[in-house]
From TrEMBL:
Cellular component terms (Gene Ontology): plasma membrane
Localisation: Cell membrane
Membrane topology designation: Multi-pass membrane protein
Protein's organism: Diaphorobacter nitroreducens
Transmembrane segments: 17-35, 41-58, 70-87, 93-112, 119-138, 150-172, 396-415, 421-438, 445-463, 491-509, 521-539
Integral membrane protein YccS N-terminal domain sequence ranges: 71-355
Pfam family, one: FUSC_2
Residue span, Integral membrane bound transporter domain: 412-533
This protein's UniProt keywords: Cell membrane, Membrane, Transmembrane, Transmembrane helix
Family of the protein in this entry: Belongs to the YccS/YhfK family.
Main location (coarse class): membrane
Source organism superkingdom: Bacteria
Record lineage: Bacteria, Pseudomonadati, Pseudomonadota, Betaproteobacteria, Burkholderiales
Name by which UniProt lists this protein: Membrane protein (TIGR01666 family)
Length: 727
């Protein structure tokens, strides 16, 4: 029995994505501590630990080849800044010049891509670690290059561990990422099921807003899984487990398109079909499918097969039976809702079939075009082109680079006024707190100060309770591991953990743990205030003022998606790269609009005066995207859309008007009054759908919904563009 419990515990441990990360950090910090103690050189603890921290912060998910390349670039960047900083730390003016150039240049290098963004950020952090580690005072006889060399040794040690981990478990991060994707899909499907609740007076707009926000998390999980997949694919076709995970990704894309589809105004269904159980049937099917997605994610984490419950098939059969019963009633008022219900049931059946496929081994199956869009730079010229494209005042990254650089300059001035020898915590706090958006910066200010205070209190208590250096060393390692386990989700706890680790480490090397408590807290407050002031005063990037541009990108992406869908109806369904790219761009733009609004709601009241119309625009944009997703989901139906001039004209008119709205938002100019063309086409499409065959009627009905969405979108865009022009 004990063996069974142990096996279950190990299985649960293996199902957690954080355990591998935590174990690597534990080995790296524990090894560094053991080496320092074993060689009787306790003064090595701080630089080795800081090198490990910087290297771990630079780590991104990658194949072992990609990780090796990233490690070499990381060590080169670390060396490029660590040795000059250590050499110039006693020359304030030259040190400041090197620090500011490093901050500005490496922040801009983040434009090259995610991997290089992490390396660039960690390099700036290491520059401050190098300054912090160099002993100052007349009694120091060590060569100036010793501390930066130790920082690089710590970084290289963690890098080697990370590289070995990539070799031994090449697909573990990808499997966990795919599991997270299916869990997000499960949450989205369960939330979508709540839209079908046939209760009068439900706030449909609020539920659609929640769907848009949840959809943003699904899109982020899709993007993360895609990048993880791409980093492991080479010129050879994928085989074995990698091919299975690739197929699971494509299935997830299809499930997402079907899950985000809308076939009608659900609140109108609730009114027309109030006395029927059909909407409850829809709700039950979606709920069960959401649970199946979550269970599939858990099965992927634990490497065990998933056997689907027979209740899923029965729920689908009950839904079809309920629709058939309603059709037999012959109610004319139910004609259009039932047509949409049939399309919905067909969509849910296909989604269920995809879930069943996802549970099969698929050992040699290739489910379609496996091409993925490569976003990594193809050459140094391409990388430089990406950086050069950011060299203007409208660039978010450029503004952040300028803001961060000036904030560090102010932090250095404050350090010279307060504590020129030990005030580097001011600079570190400014660096960690100063974020690209106001909301993220203000949120970090509060959590940074509170987390530091908690860490210092815990450190004081532990120093009192455990005076033994051995126990303090173990606690320092544990605190470092806790920092990495919590730094992305629980920033306050992560700040407390890293504060505790540093306090214990310095107490190991200098015995000055108690004397650091108050200065560290004061430095944190000063650095946080400087970061907050920089966010207000230096090229503030208010999301409220960028809302029009972000909304314009979303509308342009929707128009492109609509054109790509209609071209597929003309040529036949093909989930090729062009179609998948148009679909992903549309969902990414919708998620970006949701994120911009979330950040805007944290900004001062005078900046977020567009909040109401912005939220309205998000709901309308996401609703439009859901109608387009339904069009895309049914591409396989036999429908002679190319021969239907009405459908072709309606799609072209809708796409043109959506693009006109985007241009008005981008140019901040007034939008002309609606000429009624879209409304007229919507009416004609609805009438044509009543007399058309099943496939064509579905396309016509969906295009009618798209055209009906044009008028409210134009009203919201006119309001936002007018306010933007006035501002």
């Amino acid at each position: 029995m004990v063996d069974g419990i142990t096996a279950q515990w190990l299985q649960r441990l293996g199902a957690q994505v954080a355990w591998a990360y935590g174990l690597r950090v534990l080995l790296a910090l524990g090894g560094a501590m053991a080496w320092s103690w074993g060689t009787h050189q306790v003064d090595l603890v701080v630089p080795l630990f800081l090198g490990v921290l910087a290297s771990a912060l630079a780590e991104t998910d990658d194949s072992w080849r990609g990780r090796l390349k990233a490690l070499l670039v990381t060590l080169a960047c670390f060396a490029l800044v660590a040795f000059p900083v250590a050499a110039l730390v006693d020359q304030p003016l030259w040190f400041l010049v090197v620090l500011l150039v490093c901050s500005f240049v490496f922040t801009l290098l983040g434009a090259v891509g995610g991997r290089y963004r992490a390396i660039a950020s960690a390099t700036v952090i290491l520059a401050l670690y190098a300054a912090l580690s160099v002993p100052q005072g007349a009694g120091d006889t060590q060569p100036w290059w010793r501390m930066p060399a130790l920082l690089l040794a710590g970084a290289g040690w963690y890098g080697l561990l990370s590289l070995a981990w990539c070799v031994l478990t090449p697909l573990l991060p990808l499997r966990h990422g795919m599991a997270a994707l299916y869990e997000e899909l499960g949450a989205y499907l369960r939330l979508k099921a709540s839209v079908f609740e046939p209760v009068r007076g439900v706030d449909v707009q609020q539920r659609r807003l929640a769907l848009a926000q949840t959809n943003a998390r699904v899109v982020a999980a899709l993007n993360s899984a895609k990048e993880s997949l791409f980093s492991r694919m080479d010129a050879q076709p994928p085989q074995g487990r990698l091919l299975q995970l690739l197929n699971l990704y494509f299935i997830a894309q299809d499930i997402h398109e079907r899950a985000s589809s809308s076939h009608y105004h659900y609140n109108e269904w609730a009114d027309v079909l109030f006395h029927s159980d059909v909407l409850y049937r829809c709700q039950r099917v979606l709920t069960l499918q959401g649970m199946a997605c979550t269970q599939l994610g858990e099965a992927l984490r634990r490497r065990r097969p998933l056997v689907r419950d027979a209740g899923h098939a029965q729920a689908l059969a009950d839904l079809h039976d309920s629709i058939t019963y309603l059709e037999r009633q012959g109610q004319s008022a139910w004609q259009r809702p039932l047509r949409s219900l049939r399309a919905l049931a067909r969509n849910l059946s296909t989604l269920d079939a995809q879930l069943t496929t996802a549970t099969l081994p698929m050992q040699n199956a290739v489910l379609g075009d496996i091409a993925l869009f490569d976003r990594t730079p193809r050459s140094l010229a391409d990388a430089w082109g990406r950086v050069r494209a950011q060299l203007h005042a409208r660039s978010v990254l450029f503004r952040h680079a300028v803001r961060l650089t000036l904030a560090l300059a102010a932090g250095y001035a404050a350090m010279q006024l307060t504590d020129p020898r030990h005030g580097y915590w001011i600079l570190l706090t400014t660096l960690f707190v100063c974020q690209p958006t106001y909301g993220a910066t203000v949120s970090r200010v509060a959590r940074r100060v509170l987390g530091t205070a908690l860490g210092l209190v815990a450190g004081w208590a532990l120093l009192e309770l455990f005076p033994s250096p051995t126990l303090q060393a173990l606690l320092a390692v544990a605190a470092g591991v806790l920092f990495f386990l919590t730094r992305t989700q629980r920033y306050l706890l992560a700040t407390a953990a890293i504060t505790l680790m540093v306090l214990l480490c310095f107490n190991q090397t200098t015995g000055e743990g108690y004397t650091l408590i108050l200065p560290r807290l004061l430095d944190t407050v000063i650095g946080s205030l400087i970061a907050a002031a920089a966010m207000f005063l230096v090229l503030p990037d208010w999301q409220g003022k960028r809302l029009g541009a972000v909304a314009a990108e979303a509308l342009e992406a929707h128009a492109l998606y609509l054109r790509e869908i209609m071209s597929q109806y003309a040529t036949g369904k093909d989930d090729d790269l062009d179609y998948r790219l148009a679909r992903r761009v549309a969902h990414n733009a919708d998620a970006a609009l949701s994120a911009a609004l979330s950040h805007m709601l944290l900004e001062p009241r005078w900046v977020r005066r567009h909040a109401r119309v912005g939220l309205q625009l998000l709901v309308l944009s996401h609703t439009l995207l859901s109608y387009l997703s339904a069009l895309g989901a049914h591409r396989g139906l036999p429908a002679d859309v190319a021969a239907d001039s009405l459908a072709e004209r309606a799609a072209r008119e809708a796409a043109n008007q959506i693009e006109q709205m985007a241009q008005a938002l981008r140019g901040r100019h007034a939008l002309a009054q609606e000429d009624g063309a879209a409304e007229g086409l919507a009416l004609a499409l609805e009438q044509a759908a009543d007399a058309s065959g099943d496939g064509l009627s579905l396309v016509q009905a969906q295009l009618a919904l798209v055209c009906r969405q044009v008028a409210p979108l134009r009203a919201a865009v006119r309001s936002l563009a007018g306010q933007g022009a006035a501002a």
